Write the structure tokens for this entry.
Amino acid sequence: MNGDTLSPATRAVALGRPPREPGAPVNPPVALTSTYIADGTVNYGRVSNPTWEALEEVLGSLEGGTALSYSSGMGAIAAVVGLVPVGGVVVAPRHVYNGTSALLAEREAAGALTLRRVEAADTAGIVDASDGADLLLLESPTNPMMELTDIAAVMRGLRDGATTAATPTTPATPATGTSRRSARPIVAVDNTFATPLAQQPLGLGVDAVIHSATKYLAGHSDVVLGAVVVSPHRPDLVERLHTYRTLHGAIPGPMEAWLVLRGVRTLHVRLERASATARLLADRLAGHPAVARVRYPGFGAMISIEVAGDVAAAEAVCAATRLWTHSTSLGAVESQIERRRRHPLEATTVPETLLRLSVGVEDPEDLWTDLDQALRSSRENA
Ligand SMILES: *Cc1c(COP(=O)(O)O)cnc(C)c1O
């Protein structure tokens, strides 16, 4: 089927299925095989698998490129970082996902690369830091600070030099502002929070999109999987990433790929519901006496709040919820809440009282009632 003319919602449902022949199954099988009969296009289970291919067809179509699936989101990120030559330069926002941040810091400590940290919302700063870099690794919205990067403006800035990207308050520096850059870094965007339904970075000129499919794509807290989707303009990167995956072996299991594909079928309806609820909750949280600050980008189903009071008050909220699950991870049908600074790897610039809320698909009023009572009880105990 030619998916190009169909809407993303329809493609999420209709692609990645076996040919419509009488008696054929409607879903791809979970292809549990480590090897294949000789002389075909694939010879071994570390190279490819029909169940991955079904998932990759759908993810590729939703993001507008060629998808490769990995054993986890971190497997996908490590593969993209693996594109950087030894001694190369990587630019990444201060508040990228803490696993990404720790991986880059570990690689830097090992002498494999140099890391330049930037602020996610600072277009001119990102463009300037990218001068001479090998990889620009963005994430928007950032996890868990919910900062946004103007991806289109960054791509324009990389193409034209810093001048056009500079905000009116930032004077363009002649050194970078007047000369066109001959080579720009590989640009990758972690699109986990936005999902391809809200944001398609490849259409903005980005080279590769990364997903922790563990989150929204799978959507049911039952599987860990990752993906990279590469721009049609970069077949060289598809080739390199495929070789890297085959040699490093961060491949998904067929059952995991199947579960993610099953989750993707309902991505649009889950996200529609969760996003509408998130909007409602963000509005109400902004007026709540126990909430000092709401970080909500205006779309999607993730909200971060800063609890009025101290760490104990923030922890008390998580302990007092009955419906919201106190657990790490996000993007599932069930709503989740977590104080991110519980994790030693989290950036120390993330406020101690910040709670990350992943809004699920439960009844909005039930979610509000539970959150409201948890926030009130934390205040009473403070
Ligand atoms: C969870 C997450 C990852 C890591 O993905 P795993 O599937 O847990 O390995 C990467 N990026 C973001 C934004 C995430 O939220």
Observations:
- Residues 72-74, 97, 99, 139, 143, 190, 192-193, 212, 214-215, 224, 226 surround pyridoxal-5'-phosphate (CB under 6 Å).
- The mean pLDDT is 94.
